Amino acid sequence: MIEFLSGISLFPMVLTLACYQVGLWLRKKWDNPICNPIIVAAILVVAVLLVTGFPVENYQQSMGSATWLLTPATVCLALPLYEQLKVLKKNLFAILAGVSAGTVTSLVVVFLMCRAFGMDEQMTVSLLPKSITTAMGMVLSEQNGGIPALTTVVIIVTGILGSLMGTTLCKLLRLEHPIAQGVALGTASHVMGTSKANELGALQGAVSSLSLAAAGILTAILFPIALMFL
Amino acid sequence: MKYITQLLYILLFTGLGELLEAVVPLPVPAAIYGLVLMLIALCTGILKPEKIADTAHFLIAIMPFLFVAPAVNILRYFDIIRSELVAICVVMVVSTVIVFAVSGLVTKLLLKKEVGKDD
Fold it and tell me: Which ipTM did the prediction report?
């Protein structure tokens, strides 16, 4: 079975596309936030890989070209930002204040919870950058004695959580304003929250792009201060 | 082919971002440098939006799909989190909800004030 599948170089891409399609179809069928195409696709792909015994390393290697596109795609977030520049400028103070409050909260809450669970220094450093984009969080973790692989996992899970709970949380917290929705998604769950924000609307997407960049930079600045308490 | 030309422009900014990442000793990833550079180019009129629009919108639209492979990658690192699985999950869920609420509500509150000022 593995030999047969390994022979088809397109297998990982076709599998991922098909699983994502199932996710899209489920979301259309039931309008439930659990039916998030990323999660549905990831679970199905993992299940197929485990059942067939297809190595994850080979899967990642084949998907490399798709994963590589994430960087140019993130760069392109400049376009919706530019298109909404007027609205963003007008509300810049509220946006940046929200991002700052969220970023400080993230560092404090994660720090305190790690302490409460009795996690060691290495674990705490690995979890602290969980709300910012992967490339940034990994570097911060690595430079300060964390485990970059663990940081990657928590960052991705945080992104999944944000895009999974985003719509529900907006309703519960009565965040009807597109700008407030964008700030919350971008600050709490980085690029993955931003791709959810883009689904909600162009303004949400633009605000979220700005928030993710601002939250990332602010986290990098505040990180050394948080470490002083370790 | 407009898509190819547009992709080249986008990759030019991505490349510049990667160059900055390599040269500047700050923990800022190439994507953020590229984003800021592209925004500056758009604002100053160096880059016309229509030079990248179609391909840019396509890339942004397929972004959720691009996250499937990184999410599957968790499988590779499962051994690292196994020992502290419950604690890590609790930290992640609770902190994500709190950060979401704080950032969203602070923004909402300040937006309301601004509107009040205009009246």
Answer: 0.88
